[in-house]
Write a structure and sequence with these properties.
Number of strands: 27
Oligomer: single chain
Largest sheet: 8 strands, mixed
Strand content: 15-25%
């Protein structure tokens, strides 16, 4: 087998075919990689790989056309078949020779995810899973083209017939979709002919064992076909040959049946056992926080899906399959064609297909399909596009709601020029079954008893002594407060100093937390975004850092530094910090841009967020940025700012009631952030993949071919 492999592998590269195959694949991959990934900033390799899949269908027959056809035409196959090597070893040796040629091209492609990672992509695992799917798809195409090569002496016929078969297999999924309106037993059998359908899961970032087994079945089955064809030629026509032919024909039919029904049987295995999420955002997997919630869920609940199982949204179905694996949760699909009035027995809402009704006892909660996906306007195409998937978050919110109908009340202080919470933050609170209300202390003698948390979001005017006293009294009886510090008066376009708000400053001082005057700036690369006062600080590990810990996760604009004094009545935990070389700029006005570091600026590591737990059991969190929960800032960091806020709320409410806290699972991005590639890198990588590698392969092949011709 090794001798056959060496002979065929060398043959592919002593003539120009192997070199042309590699150069064409690399050239088209380089073109798509340049256009999709480097120029348009897409972090996923799947765009380029799906683009060159049709190219594989075209060039694979050319690569394989000589492997058996030329042997048969020149009658050298008789020498091979009479050699002391079994036919199966011959077939495997030839298959491996062609497969290794394809592998060389894939190895060149395998460096591209690393390049994307260097420029900010965070989808390394997802990209390599997509590349694995492409590799398996290519091997299956090679096996089919080799089989066709055994059927004819003509290389031209081999190429044309291979292309037709591969093209039909590639388009079969679409063909079946036109013929059949819904999935049934017959379509599942015919799915065996769809060589491109299993490839899609890999492109979507799913390591699919079903698809892996499918491609292995295809390769093994086709190799068996080749074996049968070769065995047929080894015998001369006789009565014994006729008997062998009938036996071999029956074996082929049996092999096809075994492969088809094996693939059919595997399709009935639940996806949760066969598919593994490799996406950068974990879109197909229940989060750690979600799993903890489901494991502790102690009420029976049923999730009714307003769609048949075959018509259910693919992403939603994967999420529901995971929920269905927990003892207390069951999922039932309702075919609206058979039961169109099902939803009306629970609600008068006009729910669309794929909407959900979560029921537990006498309580129910609906989840509209419109809320499963979040959309935003694409400023280039002026159309809405899906940005996030919120299936897990919406379902957990509904499960929590049917167990507890009482919303935890959060009050936001008003009357002192406070910043409004961004819509991202308020939407997340609503999803977490929190009830948000405003509170003007001028109209209330005390903070209401039902207040689970008070938010004082960056007042630009000082609190009255009476208001400060009411907040102090609230925390003395175990109340929780989130304070945010204003540094800029947007209306007056002037810097706000905490020293100009003695009552607010005194209240914070009473908790042992001090606010430094001035704007925190950074000089360290990676700790600021474009302007040195637009900070990308480090979020330290704590009970509020889930999903946002580390550097470059949140954005703070015009922040102020905080410090604390240790005492026996409270414990302090730093939440956010700058680099060691940050500095505080003082004496700025609202229009000044003079934020460069000068002599006399206080320099060092500063805290921008501090958590405190008092001896009375109250929780206090202070953040030093008035724009922290602003939608505009949030949009730059994939809603991590609002996630930090929700994490803080969850932690604070839990402090108030040690038994439970509301769970808010943030929506998962469908796509990670685009990458930014410099102009020089575009030229370098574009030339390497799109020109140098293909040209080097082509020139090498031509030179070798020319030298052999002269000999």
């Amino acid at each position: 087998m090794i001798a056959i492999f060496k002979r065929d592998f060398k043959s592919l590269f002593t003539n120009v075919i192997g070199w042309i195959f590699i150069s064409v694949l690399c050239a088209f991959f380089g073109l798509y990689f340049l256009l999709y990934n480097l120029i348009n900033g897409m972090p996923y390799l799947s765009y380029a790989l799906s683009g060159i899949a049709p190219i594989v269908i075209i060039v694979t027959p050319i690569l394989c056309m000589r492997v058996f056809s030329e042997e048969r035409k020149n009658r050298t196959d008789q020498l091979i078949f009479t050699a002391p090597v079994s036919p199966l070893q011959i077939i495997i040796g030839k298959f491996l020779a062609v497969a290794c040629t394809f592998t060389i091209a894939v190895v060149f492609m395998a460096f591209s995810p690393i390049v994307l990672e260097v420029y900010g992509a965070s989808a390394l695992g997802q990209n390599y899973v997509a590349l694995l799917g492409f590799y398996l798809f290519g091997l299956a195409c090679i096996a089919i083209a080799l089989f066709v090569s055994t059927l004819t002496r003509s290389q031209i016929i081999s190429v044309i017939l291979s292309f037709v078969i591969l093209f039909v297999g590639y388009m079969m999924d679409g063909i079946l979709g036109l013929i059949f309106t819904e999935e049934n037993f017959l379509t599942k059998i015919l799915d065996f002919l769809c060589i491109s359908k299993p490839y899609q899961n890999f492109l979507n970032g799913i390591f699919d064992i079903k698809a892996l087994i499918y491609y292995v079945l295809i390769i093994v089955l086709v190799i068996f076909f080749i074996y049968c064809v070769i065995q047929k030629r080894r015998w001369t026509m006789s009565k014994q040959v006729l008997t062998r032919s009938l036996s071999r024909g029956a074996s082929i039919v049996l092999a096809i049946a075994i492969a088809v029904f094996a693939n059919l049987g595997i399709s009935y295995i639940p996806d949760k056992y066969m598919e593994f999420d490799a996406t950068a955002t974990g879109i197909y997997t229940v989060s750690k926080q979600g799993k903890e919630f489901l494991e502790s869920y102690d009420r029976e609940a049923t999730i009714y899906v307003l769609a048949s199982e075959s018509e259910c949204d693919e992403n939603l179905k994967k999420t529901l399959d995971e929920f269905d694996s927990y003892d207390k949760i069951s999922v039932e699909y309702v075919d609206l064609a058979e039961n169109p009035m099902f939803a009306s027995s629970y609600t008068s809402e006009n729910l669309s297909a794929n909407s959900l009704i979560i029921v537990s006892g006498d309580n129910y909660k609906t989840v509209s399909y419109d809320n499963i996906y979040e959309q935003s306007m694409n400023q280039q195409s002026y159309s809405y596009e899906v940005t996030s998937y919120d299936g897990e978050g919406q379902i957990i919110s509904a499960l929590e709601r049917v167990v507890n109908n009482n919303d935890a009340v959060i009050y936001t202080l008003t009357g002192h020029g406070e910043q409004e919470l961004g819509s991202n933050a308020t939407t997340s609170l609503t999803k977490g079954n929190y009830k948000l209300q405003s509170l003007n202390l001028l109209e209330n003698d005390t903070i209401p008893d039902d207040c689970r948390l008070l938010v004082v979001n960056a007042p630009s005017k000082d609190l009255s002594k009476d208001d400060a006293a009411k907040i102090s009294e609230y925390t003395s009886r175990g109340g929780n407060v989130i304070f945010n510090i204003a540094n800029v008066d947007d209306t007056a376009r002037a810097i706000v100093s905490i020293d100009d708000m003695p009552n607010y400053k005194g209240l914070l001082d009473s908790y042992g937390i001090s606010v430094k005057t001035g704007v925190v700036c950074e000089n360290t690369s990676g700790y600021f975004y474009k302007q040195n006062f637009a900070l990308l600080p480090e979020v330290l590990e704590s009970d509020v850092s889930t999903g946002v810990e580390g550097k470059q996760s949140i954005l703070l604009y015009s922040a102020t530094a905080l410090s604390y004094v240790e005492n026996n009545n409270a414990t302090f935990t730093p939440l956010i910090q700058t680099s060691d070389s940050a500095y505080i700029k003082t004496g700025l006005d609202g229009n000044s841009n003079s934020t460069e570091k000068t002599d006399g600026d206080e320099t060092g590591k500063f805290y921008l967020g501090i958590e405190e737990t008092t001896s009375q059991g109250s929780g206090i969190v202070v953040y030093g940025c008035q724009y922290l929960f602003n939608d505009e800032m949030d949009s730059y960091v994939a809603k991590h700012n609002s996630q930090l806020f929700v994490n803080t709320v969850n932690a604070m409410v839990k402090t108030n009631d040690n038994s439970t806290s509301n769970v808010v699972i943030p929506a998962k991005q469908v796509k990670v952030d685009s990458i930014m590639v410099t102009g020089a890198a575009l030229v370098i990588y574009g030339i390497i993949w799109g020109l140098l590698i293909p040209l080097a392969c082509l020139v090498t092949g031509i030179v070798i071919w020319a030298i052999r011709r002269k000999k």
